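Subject — a protein and its fold

Tokens — whole-number codes for backbone shape
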Amino acid sequence: MVDASYFKPNKEQEQTGTDEDVHENENENENADVIGNGEEPNLRVNEEERIIAEDDQQDACNSGSIEEPYLIMNEEEIIIPEDDQQDADDSGSMEERDLTVNEEEIIVAEDDQQDSTSACDLPFDVDDPGNWEKIKQNVRDFLVQRGPKREIDLSFPEDAMGRQFSSKHYFRVLSNGEKKNRRWLVYSISSDKIFCFCCKLFKQNHNKTLLGQFANEGLNDWKNVSARLACHEKSKHHLGCFTSWIELETRLKNNATIDQGLEEQTKKEREHWRQVLLRIMAVVKRLAKNNLAFRGSNEKLCEENNGVFLQVIEMIAEFDPVMHEHVRRVFKKETHYHYLSHKIQNEMIQLLANEVKASIVATIKEAKYFSVILDCTPDASHEEQMSLVGRCVDVTASPIVVKEFFLGFLKVDDTSGLGLFNELKNALDTDALNIGDVRGQGYDNGSNMRGKHKGVQKRLLEVNPRAFYTPCGCHSLNLAICDMANCTPKADYFFGVVQRIYSFFSSSTKQWQVFRDHVEGLTLKPLSETRWESRVDSIKTFRFQAPKIREALAYLGKNGVDSKTRCEAECMATYEMGNFEFLFGMDIWYDLLHAINIVSKVLQTEDMHIDVAIEELEKLISFIQKYRETGFNNALIIAKEILSEMKVEAVFREKRTTRKRKHFDDSDSEEELAQSALESFKERLNGLALLSIEKELAQELDYSSLIETFAAKNARRVVFQ
């Protein structure tokens, strides 16, 4: 654990900072305010540093016309500082002192452009100069760094006189026929006016009126536009703004602005918080993946019982300098936002969950067709919850595979077929999944799910007839085993003995230790109430360690702590574990449940196909049919071997036979064939198993022919019609 005294100030004080009611974006604003108290940099160049022919320029403006041979001072003749000029020459953006560079020649650093773009997410169109009345420094830096933007092949509207702006004004033709790009000239689509890019961005209060319409409301005098452009581009105020533009553009390219130090400090602070949040997010994801509890009874750093989340943060702070600095700031109260509260944890959990959910939905949409699987169960708070699973072909994977995706828990108030269907429909609508693309549906065998008239599968088929319904094969198999066992009293007695022996050993630590001393390698397990095929794990110990278990019971029968324990242990050792019928049934049930459990596990795999499932079930039926012929004999041999090891006689305990008084309709035969207990057991178990598994065939039996067979066999005197 991190030593709290290292972070705490001299005077003992508690941590009070919390961020439960503060948004993350407010944190960055405060950091920027704390750091950025400097004055706005002045990037203008004094007017005295320019060489301009003011007299000639003024004469040209007064005359209202310009002759081509007239040589003037313009943007090409602006003298900029030697260092900046050298940087511009080195970057290749200026040739022969020509500062009017085409837009295609502007080189903008991609990362800086992204930072600037992110800082300029404004509600207005930033590309339209008509919206540049009141803009901030970061917006101006973004525009300067990107450069003027023009719409290509734009159809300019006509005014009332039928005149319109022409794209030819974007270029100035010199006396020698050379064309120079008026890079500073931009057109506003919203206002149908032209503006001067540099004057609009770099105008000051003292020269706002002198710059004229190009820097303020815009010019749309298309009749005199040529003369007005020629006059403006020779104005000393325009040249001053133009110089400021070029200087700022050069400095931004070279990352050498006046507020570079401030920007670096801001970026460093921003990067610090980004790294802090990255580590917090990683901790949240790791705990969520491993299903670990986040919080304890305390939510303060470096205190006892503060939960796994804060404990991991403290551990990271011991080795990581970023988190170490963050914890130090929290203890020194240098920051009010620590991003460690339970609300931030919940928010990050939701962000991660939404990202995973979006990825799942995207995969399902890419596959287009999918199946839905539903199941309901009450949670710990006794609320009914329905789990929703989507199954589709993942075409984005290589190789293409079938996958199942968990889509979430749905709180259910109405467990009827209509209520569950409405919850399913609302969940699909929320995830933007089309219910018409459902091609399969799988539920358990509950009446509200599989009902032919009002079940969920029927209501979904009414909306989408192509949503083929398949009941859960594993659940159906489990129900068949359950019905088969419950209809036989001997099977019910057998599993009752298994559970009774487990409860006896597990009721006391001393008795459990006796079991461990006698039985090695395997342990007793309780019976599962929901998955019958998993009971094979409970029977496995009896199947392979029956003599050892009997020895443990016999030991407790002689050395038990009290008379009740001794009596119970002796009875189970003599009448249960020494019972040939119990051991014979144990081997039979182990063989059956072992085969069924293998098929059940196969049916639960994600990439299971319906043809493979049918094949596995057919193999299971074939195994059971074959077991009727040879399985009982093998089980009988194994049971006798176990009894011989226990030195117990392998005989069935027959109940006392009772004689009934003969009635007039009883058989007249004095010599009745008496079946042995073993044959009776085999026939009864075979018959019940056959009727339970082959339910469809049993449903189609003709009762009339069976009645006649029964009457003829027993020679009844009653006439059956």
DSSP finds 26 helices and nine strands in the chain.
